[in-house]
Amino acid sequence: MAIQQKKTETELPLDTILAGDCVARMQELPENSVDLIFADPPYNLQLKGELHRPDNSKVDAVDDHWDQFNSFAAYDRFSREWLAAARRILKPDGAIWVIGSYHNIFRVGAALQDAGYWILNDVVWRKSNPMPNFRGKRLTNAHETMIWAAKSDSGKYTFNYEALKALNEGVQMRSDWVLPICSGGERLKDAAGNKAHPTQKPESLLHRVLVASTKPGDVVLDPFFGTGTTGAVAKRLGRHFIGIEREEEYRAVAEARIEAIRRYDRDALQVTQSKRAEPRVAFGTLVERGLLPVGAELRSLNGRHRAKVRADGTLIAHDTKGSIHQVGAVLEGAPSCNGWTYWTFRKGGDWVPIDVLRQQVRAEMSPA
Amino acid sequence: MAIQQKKTETELPLDTILAGDCVARMQELPENSVDLIFADPPYNLQLKGELHRPDNSKVDAVDDHWDQFNSFAAYDRFSREWLAAARRILKPDGAIWVIGSYHNIFRVGAALQDAGYWILNDVVWRKSNPMPNFRGKRLTNAHETMIWAAKSDSGKYTFNYEALKALNEGVQMRSDWVLPICSGGERLKDAAGNKAHPTQKPESLLHRVLVASTKPGDVVLDPFFGTGTTGAVAKRLGRHFIGIEREEEYRAVAEARIEAIRRYDRDALQVTQSKRAEPRVAFGTLVERGLLPVGAELRSLNGRHRAKVRADGTLIAHDTKGSIHQVGAVLEGAPSCNGWTYWTFRKGGDWVPIDVLRQQVRAEMSPA
DNA sequence: GTGAAAGTTGAATCAGGGA
DNA sequence: GTCCCTGATTCAACTTTCA
């Protein structure tokens, strides 16, 4: 015991995926050593039968063995155990994020409070493209809930207020986030073309979580690693990750996925620090959604200037940093500049104004 | 006791506000008598006094956590008591809505599941004009959470699917609702111009709740009535209400408020009905009435299959015999099939769905 | 090639009545 | 309680097919 308490952060298995039960693995790690925990525990869905769409095709339900619990009591026991193990390894100023649906989130939230965590916000992930309710018997289940909590009510948790403000058109980030579900090319498939994991989360969600509540170099642990979205985004953002996953199949997929990831440039990882009022730009949303990769090069419409995209939706050109409008104005020596029409990005062989991406995002968000 | 159990719904104190503790008042009401409960339970008073103690550096962490657990336990006891009393008076097919924030909603949700309620949806009220976070230490708390639950997993709860779809421009209603907070003329003020109640809910929220989950004439009970938003909207929508409120000041405000409310016209209270509500018509009836001759040929909507009508209202196609639904399912290799929309008959030069004949029969059945 | 049309899919506690 | 039958029900995004 005395030996274990002497372990330091340098002994952490950084940037690796541990095999086995998350409680056992966390108990082997040194206490007070991890900056952030992101957890996507099983939801304990209780499905009674098959569900068909109006066209008679069958809905591929989450009926995996790892989501089965015998009772609420059994699920609560499970929650209390992993939450306690997670809290022990968190630094005093560390924090945790847990995601869930109405099936489990109330139980997890209560267990979290009972364990001594201090809730900072509950954050709603509003899905822009959820699965509809096929039988017309309830409301479309169009969101999931995340709880963000500090280790204790005295923890000095990390919150990059200005960075999130920059991501949100220059106004404070709210507790409801509109993001699409994970699909298309981002969705990992096996050799047969089937989804590699039934509940893969979108990278845009983890991007916002990590930009909000970690600093470069921080250690982020995910006890239910799955196919490694947390690790992929952490690596890209220059954070260390530790994954724990029971299923070998998922570990293998995650390993290959993360291996292919490249970290963003050091410049791009610097987020806005200043308290100056940010102009109202939605540019950060393009970055979050992956419409423009962090580190991408933008070119001015007149072809005379170039700039690089940073993680919080600001630009850098030489030693000039700021919003798309600010950087454009400085480079042109002009009092002001509309960055949306000034900057272009490379699309196929052409340079296209970034405003087309904004229109794309608006089209996705407007039905809300 | 025996007398109390014999009470019928006619003995309910309809459209009145009861004074006193909600648990005691609910225990006096007959069981299985109320259609819907809407509850906005307190949380600030319950938690703040006990959790936010003056900053005392002498208190060590263990005591602190023990303290927290104690106050959470007290709140849980309170929740379990009123949820149990509420569940007793609910009709078997009744339902409940509870609204709260991250301070209390996880505890209430877990208690609700433990009490045997069956969660149908969690609904996010996304505030279009929330109060900003002044200190910039967290995300703007821009939503509250409602839980919608049936009395049990076998309860046949009311859900006016088509009405909510109509409210949402023709697409099914989602679990996130964007509505402004209560302000302006709707916000009740006292003589001095101060708000009469700190957490008055907007009528638009209750409007959607009641349109979604009640029918005209239903009984809606609110155990934390406050200034009576639930009663005001219920009266306007032609539902009965029962309010319970401890504070005389709030009761007086609510009384005056509801007195001034006028019910909408009966016509206006009618909402779009689901097809399920229409009377059932047997296919054989069409044959009996001569709307389709025995031996008539039917064709599938996609044109790929044909069948012949038999005297008993069944179909035959090759060697497949059975109902319009069964034969359609077999021919399509589908788990099920709606024969009414699958089969067409020859009318003049066109092939028309047999459903038009069913509508014809329905029109003859109901003189309305 | 290009665009229109058709097909696929996503953490789902998803029916009601009569015999 | 069970079994059986009727018949009501989908949105957005991406992928594939076909004209």
From TrEMBL, chains A, B:
Domain of life: Bacteria
Sequence ranges assigned to domain DNA methylase N-4/N-6 in this UniProt record: 34-254
Catalysed reactions listed for this entry: a 2'-deoxyadenosine in DNA + S-adenosyl-L-methionine = an N(6)-methyl-2'-deoxyadenosine in DNA + S-adenosyl-L-homocysteine + H(+)
Matching Gene3D superfamilies: Vaccinia Virus protein VP39
The keyword Transit peptide is assigned to this record: no
SUPFAM superfamilies for this protein: S-adenosyl-L-methionine-dependent methyltransferases
InterPro entries the record matches: DNA_methylase_N4/N6 (IPR002941), DNA_methylase_N6_adenine_CS (IPR002052), RAMA (IPR040843), RM_Methyltransferase (IPR001091), SAM-dependent_MTases_sf (IPR029063)
E.C. code: 2.1.1.-
Family: Belongs to the N(4)/N(6)-methyltransferase family.
Name this protein carries in UniProt: Methyltransferase
Native organism: Pontivivens ytuae
